[in-house]
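#struct-help
A.M.: can someone run this one for me? Single chain, 326 residues.
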Amino acid sequence: MKSIEKICMNLCLVLMLGCCLPGSAATVYPDRPIKIVVPFAAGGPADFLARVLGKELASRLNTSVIVENKPGAGGNIGTALVARAAPDGYTLLLGYMGTLAINPYLYQKQLFNPVDDFAPISMIATNPLVLVTNASLDVNTVQELIARAKASKNGLTYGSGGVGSANHLAAELFKSATGIKLVHVPYQGAAPATTALIAGQVDMMFNGVSASLSHIKSGALKALAVSTATRVPSLPNVKTMAESGMPGYDVSAWFGLLAPKNTPPAVLQRLENATHESVMSATMSERLTAAGFERRLMGQVEFGQFIKSELKKWSKVVRDSGAHAG
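D.P.: on it. Structure tokens below:
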């Protein structure tokens, strides 16, 4: 009898251990496709990053990674979708400075809380901005652009990826610093805004280097200055805004990966490790550099602290600019 009891106890112990082991069928992650939600239209910087990262993550996590574009309300719709998703690691967000650090101060109706509703996984990269104009606009420097705007009765028009996007606020900073008249024309993402600029539907834009680089090289767009404190390696001959008579002007968009709050710590850690391996891989590194991105990795804790600091920074910028959305 004792031997039977001992066998039963051992079997129970084995079953209990099996359920707790990280590699057991009960706790395997992932065991189905992962979805990365991009809260903007296809073809923009966030979409590019998600697709490049998704391909790398798929090979490291041994599962399919699907990119789903959910544009609208300056990125709020897609971001809110992830905030409400099941916290199981299968629905992730390609987070962006505009949606997570700017929109909370622009929109009266809050669809999500950037701190309370998400679990940061990792920052991925930054995307310097470049002040570009339609190729036919008769200006070649920032100062010439300012003079042109001042001489125009109605001012100049500028495009953006939506209200609250980095290119929107970058232009508002430029507007307030120079006192010129600029009319904002928002689009549902950087890609359609860039297309509109090339077509001459707007005069100028503070666009991501990644979205503008090929068009600058082809002559479709004219680059006047980059928005960062130092020159950008992919555009070495383009001056900074400071070199162009705008001292202290420094704006760069950032992107990261997040999950819904309460996602299991083990899942977050697996995703963080896989993301860092992906971004540091030769393939992804080359693609980011060629597209004008700069790698910038942060882990879960550091990225979470960074988001809080950005919220504090952009609250003042939005307030001083007077920008607002519905």
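A.M.: thanks! The first strand starts at residue 34 and ends at 38.
D.P.: also worth noting: Confidence is low (pLDDT under 50) at residues 6-26.
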